[in-house]
Amino acid sequence: MRALVQMIGSESAVASCLHDSKKIIAPAATYPFLLAKVAEKSPLLIVTSSSRSAEDLASELRELHNKVLEFPAWETLPHERLSPRSDTVARRIQTLNELAHSGSALNPIVITPVRGVIHRIIADLAKQPLRYIEQGQEISLSELIKHLTDLAYVRTDLVEKRGEFAVRGGIIDLFLPLTKHPVRIDFFGDEIEELNYFEVSGQRTSEPVIGKLEIFPCRELLLTEEIQVKANDLISKFPAAAEMLDRMAAGISTEGMESLIPLLIKEQETLLDRMPANTEIIFLDEERIRSRAADLLSTNDEFLAASWSNAAVGAVAPVHTGVSTYLAWDELAEKIISLGLNRRSLNSFGSDLSENTDFMAISAIDPLRGDMDQLLAVLGEAVLNNFKVIFTANGHGMVERYAGIFRGADLPVYVVEHLQAKPTAGLIHITTTPITYGFSYPSAQILFITEHDLTGSKSRVKDSDRLPSKRKQSVDPLELKAGDFVVHEQHGIGRYVEMIQR
Asked: What is the reported pTM?
């Protein structure tokens, strides 16, 4: 696919747009290719309107660029007494750490939803290098336990969730935020003798850990001695948060303590402050992003007002810090200017005819709605016109199936595992890719079609790389009654008797 990036970027019209235009109008299907081309000259900060679109774009860009980082937004509002998930925090810190300590010459691409770019963060966040564990490393058991506690990991008897650890003799079970499975650390004195993954369900080791594992914090606000002293001083000033502050003063991580960051942390900054000096900021569908930012600010205010209304009838009062955690749109624009960062936008639609706006002569693929005859006709016409044709499927099995169908229609087919070289004109290249949508670029004689354009199926190659999630349509054990029949995953049909805690 990287060959396709070079082919598109070499076109004079595209090269001119990417160099001069502040606003580019092009189909969303071309975004990954255009962004990958721009990233060859400067680091990028890409802002999307939603978290889902940021995740999808990151998956597609990893096919085209070697250094793609995600900076996800919190799932919670800043004033809520809820904490963001540990894996969300870890991904944010991972990105900031890469930006701070990476010495790679390759320009990074950072992708974040608008909620992530307008969110103020702790100024010292991810400024210190991360510690890691690996087999053969010398580190004392007590030192590792203290380090995990300082990073807000929860000590339990049995590890079941991310951010937990358990100690049994010379063994530590640890569930890091960004690993699919927890790891079992077996010590021999002060040396890590064995390091293996294990299953949560059976608690049995499965496979050894290869290489190093970085230990990411589970929270952005860590209870250092300085923070504990500040929390203790604020107890009398904020009675509504007295219970939370009291626990924090004792060094106990508390759900929702991130809502007190403006009171406990003097210096805050944004993701923009962490980007390299020559970074280019690109907004994808800027009008939608602007609208989304306004909605976030109004929603935050509405929820805060509702919290005070509930407090009037006996609910817990919110903690009003007096400082907005989100930047307004005008503040964001001023921040970009003050940092001297370049800014432009990619949009799917537009009617702006100003000098800095360019319309690319590239069109999206019309949905084929499963019509194989129509697909064969489109491909046949492209081959006759000597187009460079690329068709992508969701898996290797589907690649072979489509290759057979195309050969049956007397179309020239070439199956490749990865499209590295420049495609040959008048030939259909079939491969796999996580890129969802295709496009047609007549002036460059390029036709790129995906299986999604044909079927509309949302199944993608990248889905297998997601972290395991909770199963849907599973039985809630709390709803079972003694005598109910159940089907166990391993043991088959049985009768429910009772639930006990081991």
From this structure: 0.85
